[in-house]
Amino acid sequence: MLTGLNHLTLAVTDLNRSVAFYRDLLQLQLEATWDTGAYLSLPGLWLCLSLDPLRESAPAADYTHYAFSIGATDFPLFVERLRSASVREWRDNRSEGASFYFLDPDGHKLEAHVGDLASRLAACRQRPYAGMKFFDDR
After folding, report:
1. Rounded to whole angstroms, how far apart are CA atoms 116 and 16?
2. CA distances (Å), origin 72, targets 12, 38, 78, 79, 99
3. Residues in Cβ contact with 39 at an 8 Å cutoff, skipping those fewer than 6 apart
4. pTM, two decimal places
5. Which of 27, 61, 66, 99 has the CA that lies 20 to 30 A from 75?
6. Residue 111 a catalytic site member
């Protein structure tokens, strides 16, 4: 049985640039580097950057993205730091909780989100998505 998400691996075209982005701008902890990769972490997250010169840096057209949790008090300063660094935004927030949608240097779609699954479900109970069903029989 699965017990959780183990790690994310993101293909990058410039390892030094990506390490700087995730370490310096997003403030992940750099754990290790090697010629073609790096490990970074946040509590509960292991992120691997893997050098792949064949990666297309254009963002995908679909909604697939990776969301990081952030506290409400840290959110405004975080957004200001990314905007000051000219980080590209890819979407406006359309759901409960504060969210900032942005791209990494290789076009991976990321989000910083205030809230969790419980707060999302509570908001959805107030205003459900079309056809939404809840499964509370645990």
Report:
1. 32
2. 30, 29, 10, 11, 10
3. 30, 31, 32, 33, 46, 47, 48, 49
4. 0.91
5. 61
6. yes
Residue type, 86: S
E strand map for the chain: 8-12, 29-34, 37-42, 45-51, 66-69, 89-91, 99-103, 109-113
Structure tokens given for 10: 């993101």
Place of tokens 């691997």: 48
List of domains in the chain: 1-52 (3.10.180.10), 64-129 (3.10.180.10)
Residue written as token pair 């297309």: 56
* AA letter at 84: S
CA 46 to CA 62: how far, in whole Å?
Answer: 24
